[in-house]
Amino acid sequence: MAYSQPSVDLSPQVSDEIRKTTCYMCACRCGINVHMKEGKVAYIEGNRDHPVNRGVLCAKGSAGIMQVNAPSRLRAPLKRVGPRGSGEFEEISWDEALELAVSWLKPIRDDAPEKLAFFTGRDQSQSFTSFWAQGFGTPNYAAHGGFCSVNMAAAGIYTMGGAFWEFGQPDWDRSKLFMIFGVAEDHDSNPIKIGLGKLKKRGAKVIGVNPIRSGYNAIADEWVGITPGTDGLFILALVHCLMKAGQIDLDYLSRFTNAPVLINGDPKSPEFGLLLRDGDGKMLVMDRATAKPMAFDAPGVKPDLAGSLRKAGITHRPVFQHMAERYLSDEYAPEAVADRVGISAERIRHIAGELARVAFDEAFEIDQPWTDFRGERHEKMVGRPVSFHSMRGISAHSNGFQTCRALHVLQIILGSVEVPGGFRFKPPYPKPVEAHPKPHSKVTPGAPLDGPHLGFVHGPEDLVLKPDGSPARIDKAFTWENPMSSHGLMHMVISNAHAGDPYKIDTLFMYMANMSWNSSMNTGGVMEMLTDTDENGDYVIPHIIYSDAYSSEMVAYADLIFPDTTYLERHDCISLLDRPICEADAAADAIRWPVVEPDRDVRGFQSVLCDLGARLGLPNFINEDGSQKWADYGHYIVNHERKPGIGPLAGFRGPEGDKVGRGEVNPDQMNRYIENGGFFVEHIPEEASFYKPWNKAYQDWAVKMGIYDSPQPYLFNLYVEPMRKFQLAAEGHGDRQPPEHLRERIRATMDPLPIWYPPLEDGFADPEEYPIHALTQRPMAMYHSWGTQNAWLRQLHGRNPLYLPTKIWEEKGFSDGDWAEVTSMHGQITVPVALMAALNENTVWTWNAIGKRKGAWALDEGAPEATRGFLLNHLIHELLPARGDGMRWANSDPITGQAAWFDLRVKIEKVPAPVDAAAQPAFPPIKSPVGQGPGKLAWKVGK
Ligand code: SF4
Question: What is the pTM of this model?
């Protein structure tokens, strides 16, 4: 019998044209093919040629189409007409908007540039925005790293010249054991998923350490539901076990780390605890062959991990001996830490044993000769197939810097960094900490700042203090309160500006940072600070300029709005000077370009800065005749040279477009990128693929690419000497002295070898009263708060219950549909709950940034995000409670200033559902300058 088959067109033509650009629905920067039909975006798919995603597209990426068509998009420049916070604006022209900004900014640039505080959020143009702020002359610039993961970045760079995140990756093709700590699913999304797929295919084991078993942890072979804030203790217990069993890579430690470097052992010396150096400033090691001290990089030197130097009756021991003394101590024995970390001693020993077994028993070799920086030729590369990855979960604690350092020490003693099978850097990393700039803060009215704002301090002499010792920056970065705050402290800006501590500012200028809602601690308090007036009735923060693409909660708190474009309507560069898209085997960068023209009166924020910079006469933004130097951001990307021959993009340089890394400006560069699919890749030679910090071939390649000006080989810093310099100051040495009230804290926390101390909030919140840890994480589907108003994505997470573990659920008698009152030292919320068994038994958590304020984001006031959605931010304060002396410390890591989001402790009670079943606190609706979106979003592209 013959059946008639329906005729189905399985591959309909979905577009007239494909435009290739870079996704920005999260930080991964995947390549995308944007299918266009009659000038409109019809469909988005992954670009199969792109080095980041190889065609893979996630739910966020495909939902970009709804982002570009979101009803909440701002439409024109706005000037506030109602009271601040009301959301009442009038639309004005760009010229009016820019002149208004100039009328505020020009006088302060001429008189006191520090009265501008310019901070940006999750943007990816920080080398450009900092360039603008430098030209303006204010010291008050940073991006959002201080409230995100500066601990991870700073600990990585101080310890090993590179960090996790997009700065490195596991050797996905060779690793056999992969351990992740505190990784939220929104970050590094597609690359990690592709990598996990490779590991699983090869049968490699994945261990997930996280109080919450969701996302990557849900597919881990082994889940370790650790108690929040104790990761450092767990890691140091692993270090203890490995050292005790002798399961460490002694050869690697002696060749490539400062383990053999001698430490000054003279307690009477002002250099006690610093590294011994020769007359040329080179670190000294004991040479195994001659038993004499020699420079660490002398040709033929065989650094001795056990060799001490006895001189003038004093014994100077190497770093390794100090490590052995500390980590072999019973303090770090599994039995001593098990209760606190919530992992049995037996399990800690088992994990340590597995790390050792895979690193050493499954070691392998690659037949690839290479030459190290001492000139020694090696015939093979030795693989240690154990790799790690980590993110904000271990970073956003007040002990996060030391915890991140501890994790790097664990990687290093296993010899598993920059070797086959281990963790690998991506260009422009590795880069020694000394190759990074130091922070600059010298303000000269009417002139640029004396150098880059952010950087890495090497001792008290680099702190950013005024001559009277007071903080030079509004966020108090690089002060005795948080000396190594390499990314600034964005979470303290509004609070300090409102308090006039350390000084008052005139204009707060922010980009893409939802500071009156999900990006601030103490959200209600921040709203009050932003609207507070002085005795004259003037706002305490006189002017607020804000740029965003969408009608976010922060819009209502600004006086002037620069409406930004969406990511498909703009130029961008994903640059080697900033946060590139490199692979461990290749340098790569990429662009965005306007694949659609905006249908509103909006401009890319960076292009607005080009215009504003020229109107203000910033020297790096005008030509000699005073005319505007950069027509727009695209013009800047192609024509700007950071140094001769080095610009934002590394590919297609030189007049012919055939130069890579270094080369003259190529006016056709943007077009060449577009023709190439929006990206550029340059592979690293095979001989240079591993051992990059010490590999002569890599160092030479990096110089050729313009990553370094000269080879920069260096040792990994198991012992971070700059930290000891701060301790010495706290002990009374040197001219620059900390204030008395911080002396003990500096001495205790800035240990040059990783330590663990309890999160600072534990010292205030009585554990009997607040026994529960409370966490948030961004969902895999939503990297930005933008995602929660995306018509497709909000179907995945339209509301966010507070997830409770079985123990608390049963103890308190909760059932489905119940509500809980959650109380911290700072505040109280009432929220819906849900049961989650795969959770640390003393921890509750929820998705971050789902809850919206009524009136914002063009959502219906009855939308679930605005009624049942909620924020934990109301429970967290930017300051810890007053101490006995009346002082209040920032709720931050005392070393880096990283916001300690995850130190939060709470108590929970079951309560009846609030009236209207609305999460509390509920704030009055704000007026949206774009009104409310339609109830139904539907359109047809093409005929
Ligand atoms: S992982 Fe991120 S960059 Fe890649 S497609 Fe998804 S949202 Fe876009």
Answer: 0.97
